[in-house]
Amino acid sequence: MANVLAIETSCDETAVAIVNNRQVRSSIIASQISVHQQYGGVVPEVASRQHLETINEAIAQALEQAELDWSKIDGIAATCAPGLVGALLVGLTAAKTLAIVYNKPFLGVHHLEGHICATYLSEPTLDPPFLSLLVSGGHTSLIYVKDCGMYETLGETRDDAAGEAFDKVARLLNLGYPGGPVIDKLAQEGDPHAFALPEGRVSLPGGGFHRYDGSFSGLKTAVLRLVQQLEKEGKQVPVADVAASFQATVAKALTKRAIACALDHGLNTIAVGGGVAANSGLRKHLQAAASKHNLRVLFPPLKFCTDNAAMIACAASDHLSRGHVSQLTLGVESRLSLSQVMKLYER
Known about the structure:
The chain is an alpha/beta fold. It has 10 helices and 12 strands. The strands form 3 sheets. The chain has a 5-stranded mixed sheet with strand order 3-2-1-4-5, sandwiched between helices. Strand 9 and strand 10 (209-214) form a beta hairpin.
């Protein structure tokens, strides 16, 4: 089987990995969290400069960790969409240059397809069809995975992504950035039933509510109003209880939609991907609900929930095994629908 080296620089992690037949040979992740914390979020220009400073060393470390040289690499891939344009360009340019220098096939990979494939790293025998619940800082979607490169989005958030909501609520509670890990930790100490918060249902034109689409903007606003009301009354904000109630509401909303979607489409497996897949509340809630319906729920290892290059290499490996390669003229795109994945491999 092929050894694929992949580069992931779509946001604030400089990552390089080598994967062979869904087995990780090496995985290097240089996080920029400490750099961006002072700004309360990712600054695109800063992220791009950090990638430039880090990428060469990350590539060298990935080869050393895998104990391979360039003669043993069969394909070179990079995330090309979606993401921060400047950051994407760093990884894509590096991958193209290496492909030319070492005469290797080049593959541009869709970032979300990488998150879908992250589950393969711990479940190498998993094959479509299955339902992917993709929950990250920028995306929250229910995706019908039909085959490699064949995806249908069945539901999504109409506004804030789940991870974005975690970051904004953490900011409201003065917990810093990123919000997901700190809220998850605090939630362990709080009462998830302390405050009733809205799940964020989406109304249908003819009445009723959408079974798969959701909204987190209203939930975020509800937390804001709750905090403001408590402060107005001169009460101390029970941060742990607010965090626990918020997290439980998000987990409940995501679980309800994922279970309904899987059952409606006859899919017995739900594979969860993205940074919020690391959330302990979502893991417990979804696993418990799925077991009642005899559904299998799969989560990637925690280290492959957030952005990493192993998932990108895994996606590229699947495409390469089917003869899919990208043109060296391929560019980056800040937005690209999953339904357009195969355009990345047009000859």
